[in-house]
Amino acid sequence: DTEVTQTPKHLVMGMTNKKSLKCEQHMGHRAMYWYKQKAKKPPELMFVYSYEKLSINESVPSRFSPECPNSSLLNLHLHALQPEDSALYLCASSQSPPGLYSNQPQHFGDGTRLSIL
Amino acid sequence: QKEVEQNSGPLSVPEGAIASLNCTYSDRVSQSFFWYRQYSGKSPELIMSIYSNGDKEDGRFTAQLNKASQYVSLLIRDSQPSDSATYLCAVNMANSGYSTLTFGKGTMLLVSP
Question: Residues of B with CB below 8 A from A41's CB?
């Protein structure tokens, strides 16, 4: 059982819809991450929150909007997505935020499989 | 371009054999190295972390790190069919004042009964 919980597990939406992905962790971790993973590719970092503040945005299009309401929760708001945004969206957390040269291990949730019609 | 290189495989080994998975990385100042296992359609699962040169053992898994050669490997002893998965090597790399995990493309391991 994963200690990072993501909902929903599957999501199908149209290009004009607005939806949100949710992630929750109760390990007291102070950094949370969103990744996107396409089939047979490695995860690609999208956003990093450190102590509930956005610290890294990897030039993600504005149709993806992250939010960190508190230290345990992370949301990803979706609006006007494109078919190429269909992917597995992974949330992860780590005990401390990324350092300059060293990182704590990241623990992944089960992911949300997103399909854009 | 900072990179993590892995042989995509598939690496095929018989049940009970030792599987050896290799990874090289380009950033010589990297200090944190991780191996994740990912079953098809599932999320990555952390199986090993290593920070110092040498070997680190956990059950059937041994991670080996050689920073001088910029090389990290994962050995799986007594391989089981349930070990069949894609193994992702992840290395933290510095980018303009912060560091992020860079993943290799993964090596697919197939363990035959």
Answer: 105
- Pick from B34, B99, B105: which is nearest to A99 by CB? B99
* Of B88, B104, B74, B108, residue with least CA distance to B3: B104
Chain A touched by B77 (CB under 8 Å): no
What are the C-alpha distances in Å from B7 to residues A101, B44, B55, B106?
25, 18, 21, 7
Is the CB of A88 inside 8 Å of chain B's CB atoms? Answer: yes
pLDDT in tens, B30-85: 889 999 999 999 999 999 999 999 999 999 999 999 999 999 999 999 999 999 99
Average pLDDT over residues A38-59: 94
Which pLDDT belongs to residue B74?
98
Which segments of chain B are extended strands (E)? 4-6, 11-14, 19-25, 33-38, 45-50, 54-58, 61-66, 71-76, 85-95, 98-103, 107-112
CB contact under 8 A, B97 and A100: yes
pLDDT at A2: 59
